[in-house]
Amino acid sequence: MKNPLLVLLFSFTVFAAFGQAHHTITVRGKVIDSAAQSPLGYATVALQDAATKLPVRASLTKNDGSFVLTAPAGKPYQLVVAFVGYQSKVLQVAGTDTAVDLGNILLSASSKQLATVSVSAVKPLIRQEVDRLSYNVQADPESQVITALDMMRKVPLLSVDGSDNIKLRGSGSYKILINGKESALMAGNPSDILKSMPASNIERIEVITTPPAKYDAEGLAGIINIVTKKNTAQGYNGFVKGNYNSVYGYQANLRAIVKEGKLGYSGFAGNNEQRYVGAGFENLSIYYSPVPSSIAQTGTNFTGGHNTVTGNELSYELDSLNLLSATFNYNERSGSQGSDQYTAMRDANNTISQAYHTAGNSTAGNHGADIGLDYQLGFKHNKNELLTASYRYNNSGSSQSNHIAYDQTVNYTQPGYSQYNTAGTKENTAQLDFIDPLKIITIEAGAKMILRNYYSDFYTDTLNAASGQYFPEAAQTNNFTYHQDVYSLYNSYQVSLTGWVFKGGLRFERTDINADFSSVGSTLEKGYNNLVPSFSAQRSLNSTSNLNFGFTQRIQRPGITQLNPFVNQSNPQYVTEGNPVLTPAITNNFELSYGNFAKGAVNFSTHYSFSNNTIQNVTTLGANDVTTTTFANVGADKNLGADLSINYPLSKKWNLNVNAELLQVWLKGTYNGSFYTNSGQQGHIFISSNYRTDNGFRFNLDVGFDSRYVLLQGRDNYFFNNSYSVVKELFNKKFMAYIGVNNPFHKFNTLDFFTKSADFQTYNANQNYYRAINVGFLYRFGKLNSNVKKTQRTIQNDDSTTAGGKN
After folding, report:
1. pLDDT value, residue 800
2. Which are the contacts of 747, defined by CB distance < 8 A and separation ≥ 6?
3. Strands (DSSP E) found in 650-801
4. What is the C-alpha separation between 237 and 230, in angstroms, rounded?
5. What's the mean per-residue pLDDT of the chain?
6. Quick one: average pLDDT of 560-587?
7. How many CA atoms lie within 13 A of 15 on its CB side?
8. Residue 475: which of 565, 554, 356 has the closest Cα?
9. Least packed by Cβ within 10 Å: which of 64, 96, 534, 582?
10. How far apart are CA 378 and CA 489, in angstroms?
11. If we measure between CA atoms, which residue out of 157, 152, 128, 129 comes closest to residue 140?
12. What are 285-295's pLDDT values in tens digits?
């Protein structure tokens, strides 16, 4: 095994989670509506010490109303059963037996809110459903002080590497949704948005590894659905948050939720200013043909910028059966980059044959905006039967300019140049969804149309040394448009039986593509059909544990970042470009998982996937020892892996969270006549622990390790991080102050990458600021007293690839 530290930590957490045993009493029963004689799912059940009335164990009932609680035997307890809209019930439990079956516990409806019984329970962090894992962000104490990106490290099956790339089961091919739909908030680099968004904005994060047929088929690894806070009541509430990070700069956030009569509003806004900082880098390439030679680059990269983001949702209840909702999201990021580097080229005798110094500066910006409208119709005979019509318009884009100047040249005559590129996506989406939940079966069906237009306009101006003027270079000028229209139909069924839940369906997608390279008179026109099945099953072993199985096929369609033929020459020896003739790839995913939620939550899963013709990064050697990195359909990819997540209460005040993964990867492919193959282990582990005191202090510790990942032509970087924070709550928990430090022992860390072929091998290393101090505050305001409605179905465009991440 190539990662002994990873294996050691992985093994330690398994023994720590299962290494305790106690003499216990088991209390079970089923909560029933006394009038309808139907089970009440998600009712709160809590065992309290009969003498002190302090909580000992608490949980939620399952869909069939059943529950099982365990506690130390030998003393009396009382069981408290509470559910909103029903009268609470208290039952005495002697505590002398080893097992107590309370049978059916009948609750009667009540118009009063819960007031007579105080139930103090810890909210469960992790919930496993038939096709997904859900992480309850609001139940995590650290959600008030960390960013949404940092929260991603804690979520089962997810990890974040040293370059802030998010990975789902080690893959960068997934789709991120906001509240079940694609959003302009995730346009560009999702990590930048999540880095500037506080985790306190989020209700829960869902990891959907077996997406049902209602979701678009894109994303080889699955879907990450971020559900923001929106349920509110008559009145208003919200918070103001501000903080300063010594690396990422200033950040300010505002969230507000308002409900007045039938009108409800939920929204947030944030701004982040990152200071302009520099860090060193090194590139070394050794070439074997046509003659031995090498290139070495050293220098400093500078980056800085700002980010603004806002998300808004408005809801209006026409009556009990008709509901309108509208959304508007916007984000804008602008930044500047600079570089100061020296390049030396050496021949077979290690003598400098050419050399030059470059001073470069670049500006880049991303923006995204979307507006959506949903209409939901209920039916009098069954208010859970819903028909939803939705429309959404999305406009996202980016701009980039690179300016390169040469001096201190040795046998080198390349002129300076400037590059410009504007790219983006415009799309219109219409969707119709129908859901009919019957007694044991739920039927879903729908249709969808996406009209998407990718575009890119780029050109290069080259400096004429004699005149000092810049002139356009025809070979580096192009106007590129790529129309991708997707039409789909789906039908799925969920069957709920005693102890079993089955979910399956089919999705048909028709994709039409029309590409135009107007500057060179080249066109591309084609279409293809996909029939995508999905199936998942959940077996309840008892009220606290279950077994899940899932199978699905997924599609990887290329996005604008991968398609864009713009040749980025910001580093003239290491060129990057997209590939407009990429084709979709299909993968087959199988998974089997076990979850136990008796005390805390433990989930263990295994998964296997295989696919052909996947999109991979490939690098080739060209003239003048210039390497070009692009994308190509060359990868046959197989993955076999195991995931472990643990949330374990070490005591009433001390909690442990573990998120770990170990993967075996096999890759192979042929590109430009060369055959490549690579395999090996990769994985990550993230451990988080927090301890709270009675006087409002909370101490947090996070430690994580992300291994090198297997690439078709090499390996990328590993990353180790550690962070520590202290939180103090004041003024009846309305005000919170915190201070934290990330990676205090080193100012910089080095992220390095290895690439190798028959012609060359390359080593790239970039220093990143590592140590960071973070201070801030959060203030809550408002008063509420009933729930706001929102449509249960809406548009969720998850059919195109999210760029970034490790494959």
Report:
1. 47
2. 769, 770, 771
3. 654-671, 674-692, 697-706, 710-711, 714-715, 719-730, 735-742, 748-756, 760-769, 772-784
4. 11
5. 84
6. 85
7. 6
8. 565
9. 96
10. 22
11. 152
12. 999 877 899 99
Segments of 518-653 assigned E as strands? 522-542, 545-556, 567-568, 574-577, 585-596, 601-621, 627-649
**Res 453 pLDDT > 80:** yes
Structural contact between residues 277 and 750, judged by C-beta atoms closer than 8 angstroms:
no
The residue length of the chain stands at 807
The pLDDT of 88-92, averaged and rounded, is: 87
Q: Which residue shows structure tokens 């959907």? A: 208
Report the run of H or E that residue 81 belongs to, with start and end: strand 77-82
Specify the amino acid at residue 52: T
> Nearest-CA neighbor of 220 among 167, 292, 269, 171?
171
Structure-block tokens of residue 212: 């049902």
E strand or H helix that includes residue 516:
strand 500-517
Q: Which range, 82-86, 723-727, 757-761, is most confident?
A: 723-727
Residue with more model confidence, 417 or 787 = 417
SS3 per-residue string spanning 162-178: CCCCEEECCECCCEEEE
**Which residue type sits at 719?**
F
Q: Residue 6: which pLDDT band, with cuts at 50, 70 and 90?
A: very low
Determine contact, residues 779/200, Cβ cutoff 8 Å.
no
Task: Name beta bridge partners: 459.
Answer: 420
pLDDT for 802:
40
How far is residue 191's CA from residue 203's CA, in Å, rounded to a whole number? Answer: 18
Give percent above pLDDT 70 in the chain. Answer: 90
SS3 content of the chain, % helix, strand, coil (to 5): 5, 65, 30
Give, rounded to a whole angstrom, the gap between the first and last alpha carbons of the chain.
20
How far is 706 from 689, CA to CA, in rounded Å?
A: 18
Q: Above 90 in pLDDT, residue 111?
A: no
Q: Which helix (H) or strand (E) holds 463?
A: strand 441-464
Residue 770: alpha-carbon gap to chain centroid? 22
**Encoded amino acid at 428, one letter:** N
Report how far residue 141's alpha carbon sits from residue 154's, in angstroms, rounded to the nearest whole number: 12
- In whole angstroms, what is the distance from residue 567 CA to residue 565 CA? 6
Reference 550, options 79, 32, 157, 55; nearest CA is: 157
Number of H helices, E strands in the chain: 4, 43
Structure token digits, residue 344: 């030396």
Contact 1, 681 (CB under 8 A): yes
Residue 310 amino acid letter: T
Q: Which two tokens stand for residue 732?
A: 């009846």
Is-contact 658 687, C-beta < 8 A?
Answer: yes
What's the pLDDT score for residue 113? 36
The residue-averaged pLDDT of 147-167 equals 86
pLDDT (mean) for 714-727: 92
> What is the b/e burial string over 174-189, where b = at least 16 CB atoms within 10 angstroms of the residue's CB?
bbbbbbbbbbbbbbbb
Q: How much is the pLDDT for 1?
A: 40
Predicted confidence (pLDDT) per residue in 211-223, tens digit: 888 888 887 788 9
Give CA separation, 220 vs 89, 172, 211, 345, 590, in Å. 47, 9, 11, 41, 12
pLDDT for 324 equals 93
Cβ proximity of 225 and 180 under 8 Å:
yes
Task: Report how far apart, in Å, the C-alpha atoms of 585 and of each of 506, 530, 713 are.
Answer: 18, 11, 19
* pLDDT for res 84: 63
Sign of CA dihedral 239, 244, 247, 249: positive
Q: What SS3 state is found at 84?
A: coil
pLDDT category of residue 87 using cuts at 50, 70 and 90: confident
pLDDT at residue 676 above 80? yes
Query: Residue 376 pairs with which residues in a beta bridge?
Result: 323, 388
Look up tokens 């003498």; give the residue. Answer: 51
Give CA–CA dist 576/573, Å, rounded: 10
